[in-house]
Design brief:
By secondary structure, the protein is an all-alpha fold. Helices cover 62% and strands 0% of the residues.
Length: 73
């Protein structure tokens, strides 16, 4: 299946630690939009592409959770 998802690309791994909260939130929305578009195009939830997007989203969720834990501490 071809992937014709338009929009911005998520930042590369080496820039993740330097994201401000708004950029982090925007990046997570971009990934979610890519996932939604892929599903609309018939992509299986267990496909390699969807798993890759899910793993990217997991990374950003983890960063958000770590930041929250730092604020609580």
């Amino acid at each position: 299946m071809t992937h014709q998802v338009s929009g911005e690309e998520a930042p590369t791994q080496h820039t993740i630690d330097h994201l401000n909260d708004q950029t982090l939130q925007n990046t997570m929305k971009i990934i979610l939009n890519q996932m939604e578009e892929a599903v609309k195009q018939g992509e299986s939830l267990t496909s390699e592409y969807m798993v890759q997007l899910s793993q990217q989203l997991d990374t950003y969720v983890l960063i958000a959770q770590i930041r929250k834990m730092r604020c609580v501490s």
